[in-house]
Amino acid sequence: MSGILIAGGGLAGAATAIALAQAGRKVTLIEREAVPTHKICGEFLSAEAQISLSRLGFNCRTLGGERITHVRLIRGNRSITAKLPFEGLGLTRKTLDESLLRHAAAAGVSVQRGHAVQRISLDGGLHVEVDRSPPLNPETLFLATGKHETRGVARDGKPSRLVGFKTYFRLSPAQHMALAGHVELFLFPGGYAGLQRVENGQANFCLVVEAGLLARAGSKFPALLAHLQNICPQLAARLAGAEVLLSAPLTIARVPYGFVHRPRAQDPANLFRLGDQAAVIPSFTGDGMAIALHSAALAAEYFLRGETSETYHRRLARDVSGQIQRATALHAALSMPLLGPVLFAMARGFPQALAISATFTRVPEYARLSGAIRHP
Ligand SMILES: Cc1cc2nc3c(=O)[nH]c(=O)nc-3n(C[C@H](O)[C@H](O)[C@H](O)COP(=O)(O)OP(=O)(O)OC[C@H]3O[C@@H](n4cnc5c(N)ncnc54)[C@H](O)[C@@H]3O)c2cc1C
Fold first, then answer.
1. Considering the domain boundaries, does residue 210 fall inside one?
2. Do residues 19 and 156 make contact, with C-beta atoms less than 8 angstroms apart?
């Protein structure tokens, strides 16, 4: 096989495929899942992510998501509410990713579903093993397999000791109303949880906890949830009378938070890493999707201009390293037993700090708005 191959049809893979197809290139995209599936994600789609999607001719605002204008930070029985410096959207990944893949197919991308890249070998060129078929030899490979490693090209980030969960609730009518327009972040020793409305009257509940806290709850999600409701009365109030909508939560572990791919001498010039395969920001920022989409736009632009992946990776690292470092430091500070409560108390006296933190942990505007190559 020659030409362009994209491994993974999440946001990063689909967005790159669309950008290249719109530029007249022939693109094949391989997505492991044969049918629409849930993904572990807080499903907070930031303004930058929405702008990136609209540049592909894709309007995510027509998909039934929920407008999010405020953030509420909650610790114990205290809370701080602040207006976000932008408007977010609560939209399930099942809806978003499927619609984007359909948009890719309509743009002319050959979308091949239900096939998995098993291994990538870099010996004497790019060899991509898909299922049990003979290896493909694409001229250029965009690696967009997201959170999971692919044999032969695993990321070199340090896995965190955090475990993520996601489920959906149908809240009681009163609690559903009370949550309107807000993303709520519950902070507790050993982690945080996010709650927000998404389409079809559901609420996304996503949490990230230290492995030790989960172990103390007997490694069982129901016990962990009961513990969190005990220490966080406002979470208990939100979930009172709620119906859980998934038979089991989605889980993830060993996410290399803080990872940013730095090009190495042995990297092939025709292997572009996208999305979580290139950079991973702490989840609470709700900006991972924006980074994935920024990486997609940048990779497509650099590729179309005949640049190597090394130049692209250097530029992406420069664009997102600052926000990832700030988010990682903020996460570490909020998790500290003494500092966390102090920072929370300070933020109560200065709620605008929440909006400022939200701005500092975004893909910077100069990076998104300037042409990829023109930026110094
Ligand atoms: C707990 C948690 C909460 C988060 N909350 C938010 C949030 O609220 N807002 C936000 O913006 N970001 C959030 N993020 C981050 C966000 O989910 C990711 O940054 C984003 O999904 C990355 O997009 P991607 O396209 O790189 O990967 P993905 O969205 O993971 O897509 C990868 C795709 O590749 C496919 N694939 C995987 N392996 C193979 C294979 N071998 N062969 C073929 N296909 C394959 C998968 O099926 C998938 O469709 C969160 C992350 C976590 C862990």
1. no
2. no
